[in-house]
From TrEMBL:
InterPro entries according to UniProt: YbaK/aa-tRNA-synt-asso_dom_sf (IPR036754), YbaK/aa-tRNA-synth-assoc-dom (IPR007214)
Residue span(s) of domain YbaK/aminoacyl-tRNA synthetase-associated: 45-167
Pfam families: tRNA_edit
Provenance organism: Nocardioides thalensis
Molecular-function GO terms, alphabetical: aminoacyl-tRNA deacylase activity
Protein name as catalogued: Prolyl-tRNA editing enzyme YbaK/EbsC (Cys-tRNA(Pro) deacylase)
């Protein structure tokens, strides 16, 4: 199988380089049927934020995907979801995510909690290997990306994923209108 790549980045088979992903991400990749199509690339950790990485490595924002974690409560029960959206869009937290989680007031999970509970670094949270109990909402436009650049659980690397592979990501719910 051909490994996905982008110009200017050295693609490595992710399952052959477990040191380049956070432990929960590696576990999530092992459960993903399309993990053999996923590459990992090393980057400067100071450039892990999407805009900085896109500029430094000449990767279009439309090729990036961001994973944001949102939470809300209903009748005392907290509901958490990771939302994967294209980097050139924003998750529709106040309407679509609110409706899907069936909560009164959704908000971004505080950074320290997201990091602690996911076992991933801030700026590297990714949909593979999320905690049990978190929903995974994927904007319907993400699978249309030829090669999506997403977090690896670490700031010093990124995953390159064929967009259609998100259709086989365990637990993924493909949602029309998740982002605007």
């Amino acid at each position: 199988m051909t490994l996905v790549s982008l110009p200017g980045l050295t693609s490595l088979p992710v399952l052959d380089h477990p040191d380049l992903v956070a432990p929960p991400v590696l576990a999530g990749l092992k459960a993903w049927p399309d993990a053999d199509r996923v590459a990992v690339v090393e980057i400067d950790p100071d450039l892990a934020d999407t805009a900085a990485m896109s500029e430094a490595y000449d990767v279009p924002m439309a090729a990036g995907a961001n994973c944001v974690v949102v939470a809300g409560k209903r009748e005392g029960e907290e509901r958490v979801a990771a939302c994967l959206v294209r980097a050139d869009t924003r998750a529709d937290v106040n309407h679509t995510v609110k409706r899907l989680l069936d909560v009164r007031k959704p908000s971004f999970l505080p950074m320290d909690r997201a990091v602690e509970e996911s076992g991933m670094e801030y700026g590297g949270i990714t949909p593979a290997g999320l905690p049990a109990g978190w929903r995974l909402l994927v904007d319907a436009r993400v699978p249309d990306i030829d090669v999506a650049v997403i977090g690896s659980g670490l700031r010093r690397s990124k995953l390159l994923v064929p967009g259609d592979a998100f259709l086989t990501l365990p637990g993924a719910e493909i949602v029309d209108g998740l982002a605007s």
